[in-house]
């Protein structure tokens, strides 16, 4: 199996022309798995239908091909709206070969309304991640990154739920947190018995380490894209991650760049050797303090993630000289409070 990446920029959420062109250039008989990761402009609010538009355009471009789709809305700052086509081609796998990027996908069944944002939701994600690992032929130790798209409990169910469940309605942080904990269970990073309804969004010591979770109202189930470095997978792509201490942890990004072999330019930055793909999940600790000083991230007319994406995109643009980066705000239980995660796909030397 050989994983290929193809990026395409988008003129708007409904623009999938680049995807159609990338698919047309691939040998159709050898496609084993297809996944699309998209970053589109939009309000990123509960009634933001740009995701639906992007998904409809993507499905039309796929022309009936089965694919796993994860779209994240919000390009504030200097983020170029874009999609990344991830395909795995049918090739022989040599277990004795070097570790290379492998792709696995899975999905949960629709999450029952009464389980949204709770332990049952997390366990459903855990089971899907295990299936994605099997699909990739990977062990938990070989997994580089798990991406999970998780549904948000619609407010229309408020009248039919008990108060403790109704409190989760419309909560995107809850959706992300529960998805992260479920994936963490499957990866062996989170003890299953500690994932209780009371711990979700409350126990900051309980978090995954190789997961990026996204929420949305456009689905009622969870989608999983799993990337792993598997011996003999074929191709020349590999993936590495690095935890971020906070949203302005530029040294962590530079450590990761050096670790994966990117060459610095004359200023010590990486503007001439950007990775094949760069993904960031960023957050700010509850209360909004950053390095001991007050910020207005949680005290503004803007949603918190609309503060986070511009900050992170400016930092990435300065370090790597690119605006084609996948940045998502809200790292609830995907890192210690206020922390985050960076991931890079590069070509092996």
TrEMBL record:
Q: Provide the assembly information.
A: Homotetramer.
Task: Report the sequence similarity comment from the record.
Answer: Belongs to the cyclic amide hydrolase (CyAH) family.
Highest taxon above the source species: Bacteria
Enumerate the GO terms in the molecular function aspect: hydrolase activity, acting on carbon-nitrogen (but not peptide) bonds, in cyclic amides
Q: Name one Pfam family in it.
A: Amido_AtzD_TrzD
Q: What is this protein called?
A: Cyanuric acid amidohydrolase
NCBIfam families for the chain: amido_AtzD_TrzD
Matching InterPro entries, A to Z?
AtzD/Barbiturase (IPR014086), AtzD/Barbiturase_RUA (IPR043008), AtzD/Barbiturase_RUB (IPR043006), AtzD/Barbiturase_RUC (IPR043007)
What keywords were assigned to this record?
Hydrolase
């Amino acid at each position: 199996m050989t994983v290929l990446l193809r990026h395409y920029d988008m003129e708007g959420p409904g623009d999938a022309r680049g995807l159609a062109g990338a698919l047309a250039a691939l040998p159709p008989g050898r496609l084993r798995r297809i996944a699309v990761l998209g970053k589109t402009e939009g309000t990123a609010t509960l009634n933001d239908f740009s995701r639906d538009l992007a998904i409809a355009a993507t499905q039309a471009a796929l022309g009936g091909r089965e694919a796993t789709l994860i779209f994240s809305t919000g390009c504030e700052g200097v983020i170029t709206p874009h999609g990344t086509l991830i395909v795995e081609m049918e090739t022989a796998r040599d277990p004795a070969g070097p570790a290379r990027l492998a792709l696995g996908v899975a999905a949960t069944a629709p999450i029952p309304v009464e389980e949204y944002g709770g332990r049952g939701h997390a366990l459903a994600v855990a089971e899907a991640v295990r299936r994605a690992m099997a699909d990739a032929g990977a062990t938990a130790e070989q997994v580089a990154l798990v991406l999970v798209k998780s549904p948000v409990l619609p407010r229309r169910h408020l009248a039919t739920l008990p108060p403790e469940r109704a409190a989760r309605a419309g909560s995107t942080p809850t959706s992300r947190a529960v998805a992260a904990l479920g994936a963490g269970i499957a990866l062996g990073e989170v003890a299953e018995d500690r994932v209780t309804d009371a711990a979700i969004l409350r126990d900051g010591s309980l978090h995954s380490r190789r997961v990026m979770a996204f929420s949305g109202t456009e689905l009622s189930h969870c989608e999983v894209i799993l990337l792993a470095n598997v011996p003999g997978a074929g191709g020349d792509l590999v993936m590495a991650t690095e935890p971020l201490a906070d949203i302005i942890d530029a040294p962590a990004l530079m450590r990761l760049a050096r670790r994966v072999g990117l060459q610095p330019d004359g200023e010590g930055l990486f503007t001439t050797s950007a990775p094949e793909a760069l993904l960031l999940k960023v957050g700010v600790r509850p209360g909004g303090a950053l390095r001991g000083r007050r910020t207005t991230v949680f005290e503004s007319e803007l949603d918190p993630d609309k503060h986070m994406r511009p900050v992170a995109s400016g930092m990435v643009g300065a370090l790597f000289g690119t605006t084609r980066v996948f940045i998502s705000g809200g790292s609830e239980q995907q890192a210690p409070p206020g922390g985050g995660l960076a991931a890079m796909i590069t070509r092996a030397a």
